[in-house]
Amino acid sequence: MSFLDLLRGYAALQRGKKEWVRRGLEAIEKNDPAAQDEIVNRRYPGFKALYHHRIAHLLWENGCERVARLYSERWRRKTGIEIHPGAKILDGVFIDHGMGVVIGETSEIGERCILHQGVTLGGTGKKRQKRHPTLGKNVVVGAGANLLGNITIGDDVRVGAGSVVINDVPTNSTVVGVPGRIVKGVESDGNRERLPDPLVEMLMDMQKRIEEIEKKLKEK
Fold first, then answer.
1. pLDDT in tens, 123-144
2. Which of the listed residues 35, 51, 104, 115 has the most CB atoms within 10 Å of its CB?
3. Is the CA virtual torsion 9, 79, 108, 193 positive or negative?
4. Residue 15 CB neighbour total at 10 angstroms
């Protein structure tokens, strides 16, 4: 990497800083009802992790991979959020709470996505190739969900908490369960959405069948 490249990278960093801050704060205000003033919002772990990831990613893209990794690891220790400097994250992404979030090297996250605590965008395989998920725009990933491998999650997808997703998910879908499966029907009480739970549905169906069998046995 030449001295001229370093100067160009530094200039790009200075140009981007104000815009990164503005868009990061906008994402917090839009997605978190507990958001307060700018001073408080700047202290969000998710805000810090994403802001400093952009610096680490710029270093990574300009050939300073060792420095980028060291810088990234420093902010992982400070925020509890691990983002590989190679990951590509677009504007308007919001990490809520964030503790335990892991975003792998070849992950790609589209605009206005929301990741809750404990989310993993993990890789499969050991070859240096695309091995992590790609998220479209407006994707919401619930707490503790695991998205694994070179899969594509379409725009406006919702992934339920604790789900394990290993296959592509089409646009405008809701996926829940282990392994994740696409479901229809999202209940809402006006304040929050409630995704279907495949395990609960299965148990309720079993209970219903048991009751029907018991009823028939009594009739005999």
1. 987 778 899 999 999 999 999 9
2. 115
3. negative
4. 9
Report the alpha-carbon distance of residue 171 to residue 100 in Å, rounded.
Answer: 27
Distances (CA, A) of 5 to 2, 15, 146, 182: 5, 15, 37, 46
User: Which pLDDT belongs to residue 33?
Assistant: 67
CATH number at residue 47: 2.160.10.10
For the chain, the domain total comes to 1
**Each residue's pLDDT tens digit, 82-110:** 999 999 999 889 998 889 999 999 999 99
The residue range of the domain holding 170 is 3-219
Tell if the pTM clears 0.90, that is, is over it.
Answer: no
pLDDT at 80 over 50: yes
